[in-house]
Amino acid sequence: MGIARALAAEGCAVMLNGFGEREEIERQRAELAEAFDVKVLYSGGNLEQAGECADLIADAEARLGPVDILVNNAGIQHVAPVESFPIDRWDSILAVNLTAAFLTIRRALPAMRSRGWGRVINIASTHGLVASPRKAAYVAAKHGLLGLTKVVALETAGEGITCNAICPGWVLTPLVQRQIDARAAAEGVDVERATRELLAEKQPSGRFTTVEQLGALAVFLCSEAASNLTGACLPIDGGWLAQ
Question: Is the pTM of this model over 0.90?
Answer without folding.
Answer: yes
